Amino acid sequence: MSAETVAAEKKSLFTPFNIIAGIILIAGLVVTVMRFTGGLGAVTNLDQNNPWGIWIGFDLLCGVALAAGGYTTSAACYVFGLKKYHSAVRPAILTAFLGYALVVFALHYDVGRPWRLPYPIFVQQGTTSLLFEVGLCVFLYLTVLFIEFTPAMFEWLGMKKIRNVVVKLTLALTIMGVVLSTLHQSSLGALFTIAPSKLHPLWYSQYLPVFFFVSSICAGLSMVIFEGTLSHKPMHHLMDEEYLDNHDGLILGFGKAASLVLFGYFSIKVIGLAYDNNWHYLTTGYGAWFLVEMLGFVALPSFLYAIGVRDRSIPVIKWAAALTVLGIVVNRFNISLVAFNYQLPSAQRYFPSWGEITISLFVVTIGVLVFRFVSTRMPIFYEHPDYKGEH
Amino acid sequence: MLRRTFLGLLGAAGASVALPMSAKAGGKKFGPHPDTQGVLFDATRCIGCRQCEAACNEVNELPAPDKKFDDLSVLDTERRTDEKTYTIVNKYQTETGPVFRKSQCNHCLEPACASACFVKAFKKEPNGAVSYDASVCVGCRYCMVACPFSIPAYEYGEPLTPRVMKCTMCAPRLAEGKLPGCVERCPKEALTFGPRDELIKIARARINAFPGKYVDHVYGEHEMGGTSWMYISGQPFSEIGLREDLGTASAPELTAGALASVPIVVGLWPVLLGGIYAVSKRKDKIANDERVMAVKDALSKAADQAEKKLHEELSKAETASQRRIEVEVKKAVEEALSAKDEDAEKSEEEA
């Protein structure tokens, strides 16, 4: 090995990205040790009034919503027959699978006795609980996503026979995925229907499950655009012509759909407001924040998407996607943290600790690293030469 | 075979989600168990002596408090139940002077915690107590989110075996025929233990006997579907830290709608999506067929034209060759004739 290649390898290992990722990983490991030796109290700001913090609000609620690209893309391609989006299915499935796997991983920090996470499914079923529904669906959907992901892995490993068997299951798996996603995306919202006295009326609604489901579609469509944009530069050399040729068409198509679904979401939110006759809250401080969420993170991106599609302007659509992704995070934070326990005096309200933020960053970093590892090795952004034009 | 088995398993899983839930989510009302017992707290009798707190601490063998139970200065700051204290007394300043109110688990008739728990760690017992089983608890703390009275507390300091802690209504003592610790110790009879419907009668009797002294309401009779632990007071309940905006719907009623939609989605979505798939597939097929037909059409038209052209060319060629033959014959005849003429001339010359 020449001196040049050694230098090149060294340089490639200590990129700014890798250094930051390394620091986050080390910090995460330190907090992990603290969490499992000192308890939740040692690393979080959770207390008796605020049992759920950002590990639920971000890692679980946002994680699941932003992983919705898996079911939206595969449904568009395989159920609705929009074959031109085919090249986006694999990245979306991989993102969704990693997203859900990380949700489950992050839950190990939040729940008191993580090794008992299978209990609700295998030991004693609390079927009256919406959390049971969430747990069962996430468990089943994670399995479905894994199976949907395996063809890429089998192609990489050269296991033709089993790969062909799994490919035949595609439609059944896609439909299962949509059913399970509908159920748990909506029941994450339904979790909060049990606490009308704790969630601010502007965010509390009997329609919370519907709001969560519809907004998860917005999140899924926007995440595919957003994530495609993020991976475009570092992964460009891996993308085949089909992916690159269809990329702009996909952005236009998904942008159009996202514009419509966001508009629909805005409408049903207004209907929810009218149904509970909560208009008078709009003049309060919470009302102002509610309007920021509704106008800035729902109406505005819907409008931007529409303009972007009309003018065929990819940059405008990409900005709309980023705004929608941020809007989903704002919405899930509002419901689980900002508007939750609104009745408490400000001294008793929750704000995340550094330990909690570190673990959330830790989880996201692991996701990015695994995504990079898998997509640089397996046929994700390109078709495997042995199976060109097959699926 | 793999596909069938897999689908079968998933179908079974879907059905198992759907069946028990639909039964629970039917919106049926269940009255309290006939033996349901409870406690009536009378805020006009409580003097804030904290003896109930001390008794609770003793009978439940809880850790020693930071300040002793006879130190009443703790009443100056509002407290809530936590993992070391199942009950607390708070002091509220009202128009008529300080009023004391005890707080603990209200042992709801249809408990939000039991409804929310995904491992059934909470259970409403026939005697009225809401029990907790730490041996299955995962520690998700959804019970704490769900409880409208913010009662369950969590052992945040326990790294590996944290429990949710709350008043047990002294279920072990009830089983021995004893009173709950706090009720037994109260020096002012601010606490009355008994069958729940009896307690409501006692509460009504007191309100009726002293109409000016009490607010005409038994708190907990209907709040959140009713509780085993109830309150009467001389001051509005919101002034002694009890929310009056909770409504009368029980926790299971609040989530019934969302749970009822599960079997509908499981049943309807595959049909709907299957239909959409069939339509899109059919659309593709029709489009494909049309394309094939168009190609065939074009091909046959082209073939027809080609044949016609060939025919024309052939007939043209035939006439051309005919003419050429005629010309050749003519030429031959002319040559023959001229040859004959020459012969004749030669013979004439010879002759």
TrEMBL record, chain A:
Highest taxon listed in the record's lineage: Bacteria
Ranges in coiled-coil conformation: none
Membrane topology: Multi-pass membrane protein
Transmembrane segments: 12-34, 54-80, 92-109, 129-149, 169-195, 207-228, 249-268, 288-307, 319-342, 354-374
Key words, A-Z: Cell membrane, Membrane, Transmembrane, Transmembrane helix
InterPro entries, per the entry: FDH_cytochrome_b556_subunit, NrfD-like, sulf_resp_HmcC
Alphabetized Pfam families for the sequence: NrfD (PF03916)
Subcellular location: Cell membrane
Family the entry assigns: Belongs to the NrfD family.
NCBIfam families: sulf_resp_HmcC
Protein name: Ni/Fe-hydrogenase cytochrome b subunit
Source organism (scientific name): Pseudodesulfovibrio portus
Record lineage: Bacteria, Pseudomonadati, Thermodesulfobacteriota, Desulfovibrionia, Desulfovibrionales
TrEMBL record, chain B:
Transmembrane segments: 258-279
Extent of the signal sequence: 1-25
Top-level taxon of the source organism: Bacteria
Coiled-coil segments: 296-350
UniProt entry keywords in alphabetical sequence: 4Fe-4S, Coiled coil, Iron, Iron-sulfur, Membrane, Metal-binding, Repeat, Signal, Transmembrane, Transmembrane helix
Cellular compartment(s): Cell envelope
UniProt xrefs under InterPro entries: 4Fe4S_Fe-S-bd, 4Fe4S_Fe_S_CS, FDH_Electron_Transfer_Unit, HmcB, TAT_signal
Protein name: 4Fe-4S ferredoxin-type domain-containing protein
